[in-house]
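Thread amino acids onto this structure.
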């Protein structure tokens, strides 16, 4: 057997389930695809054009950022500490009103894509205007993406009314129908910004294209109160009544969903995207993620846009989600390491319907793979590589990123602080570890 690339790793976490960690394994890559995962001692018999030796690294599938607004990278840092409506009305909406254009969306997405890929994110699901230009920026930065045909109940530089938004979305489906790197979702903004008539058109469009619906839902308490007042029911109950819920529905945030709404999502087989940084920074509340997981709802991770985060660091987001989730349900046994790393990879791929191609390291999938260095002082000693990847490592430790088998990012390895070299740090920690 001959392959193009062998990555010999300290550990491989394939994410075909939530627990498996394979020590001393190698990932085999050929023609942009994963062709096998084998014990490294067996990889010696395989010919390769290139062997990448990473004995201190853990290999994972690339992270999936299941909810973001990439062009908002150009608004990073605006209006910190303002209440949500002040933030939107005095900062974000006026800036967007001034800047909104295809160029703004392309260049913002290119910058966002560069930060994402450096952070180990190899696929992103975007929700914004001028999505053809968003896709151009993200793919140019090296990512795969889902982009949204947005539908919102007020005019923008892109469209004047629901029918024009739907027409723009139709054009997106046509534009990307055979694209290997871009898929299209229908993106109604939120239950409070799209009326019933608009949501019925959204449902029909999604059905026609067998597409996923990507929507902010139950983000704030005032959204619930508004829905009860205007429609006499909670937002997810209304979406169910209008026929939007199925296994292709992506409910972003889902912070204030009550048990009846969660039951509707679970029954439909829908997914949710958890964006804890955004929920905390905008003081939206605490999403009941442990409860969702227990009910069998697929959970993905998202960064939201940087205007409410203010970074696209999916590993950091997932670490925060794990700790926050435990505190919210007051149970350390929930939101386990495997649950969280699964949400950041396969959970995202499933939510977006990309799991036929990405989300795990297994034969036949795209070789979208990241390597995280666990050999530095910030992660040593290693007792539990998966746990230390989640709780100790940071995005700066993600040193190698492959997309379609091509190495797109290679960072310098930290040399450590003198006089404690990397080698000495490993020696000291190993010595004490061996005395247990
Ligand atoms: Zn959002």
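Threaded sequence (436 positions):
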């Amino acid at each position: 057997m001959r392959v193009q690339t062998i990555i010999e790793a300290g550990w491989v976490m394939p994410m075909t389930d939530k627990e498996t960690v394979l020590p001393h394994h190698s990932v085999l890559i050929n023609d942009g695809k994963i062709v096998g995962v084998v014990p490294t001692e067996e990889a010696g018999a395989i010919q390769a054009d290139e062997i990448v030796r990473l004995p201190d690294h853990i290999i994972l599938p690339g992270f999936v950022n299941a909810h973001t607004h990439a062009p908002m990278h150009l608004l990073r840092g605006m209006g910190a500490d303002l209440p949500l409506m002040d933030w939107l009305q005095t900062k974000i909406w006026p800036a967007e009103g001034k800047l909104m254009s295809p160029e703004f969306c392309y260049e913002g997405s290119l910058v966002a894509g560069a930060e994402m890929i450096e952070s180990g994110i190899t696929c992103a699901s975007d929700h914004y205007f001028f999505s053809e230009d968003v896709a151009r920026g993200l793919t140019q930065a090296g990512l795969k993406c889902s982009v949204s045909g947005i539908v919102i109940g007020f005019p923008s530089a892109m469209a004047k009314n629901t029918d024009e938004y739907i027409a723009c979305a139709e054009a997106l489906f046509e534009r990307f129908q055979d694209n290997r790197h871009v898929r299209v979702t229908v993106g109604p903004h939120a239950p409070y910004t799209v009326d019933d008539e608009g949501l019925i058109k959204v449902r029909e469009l999604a059905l026609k294209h067998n597409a996923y619906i990507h929507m902010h839902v139950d983000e704030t308490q005032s959204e619930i109160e508004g829905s009860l007042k205007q429609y006499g029911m909670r937002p997810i109950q209304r979406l169910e009544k209008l026929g939007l819920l199925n296994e292709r529905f992506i409910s972003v945030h889902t912070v204030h969903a009550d048990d009846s709404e969660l039951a509707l999502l679970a029954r439909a087989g829908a997914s949710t995207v958890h964006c804890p940084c955004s929920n905390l920074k905008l003081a939206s509340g605490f999403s009941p993620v442990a409860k969702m997981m227990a009910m069998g709802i697929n959970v993905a991770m998202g960064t939201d846009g940087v205007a409410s985060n203010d970074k696209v660091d999916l590993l950091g987001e997932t670490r925060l989600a794990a700790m926050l989730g435990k505190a919210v349900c007051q149970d350390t046994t929930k939101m386990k390491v495997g649950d969280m790393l699964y949400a950041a990879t396969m959970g995202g791929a499933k939510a977006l319907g990309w799991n036929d191609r990405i989300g795990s390291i297994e034969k036949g999938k795209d070789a979208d793979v990241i390597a995280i260095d666990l050999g530095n002082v910030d992660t040593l000693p290693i007792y539990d590589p998966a746990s230390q990847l989640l709780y100790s490592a940071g995005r700066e430790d993600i040193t190698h990123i492959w997309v379609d088998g091509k190495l797109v990012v290679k960072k310098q390895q930290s040399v450590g602080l003198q006089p404690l070299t990397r080698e000495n740090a490993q020696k000291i920690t190993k010595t004490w570890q061996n005395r247990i």
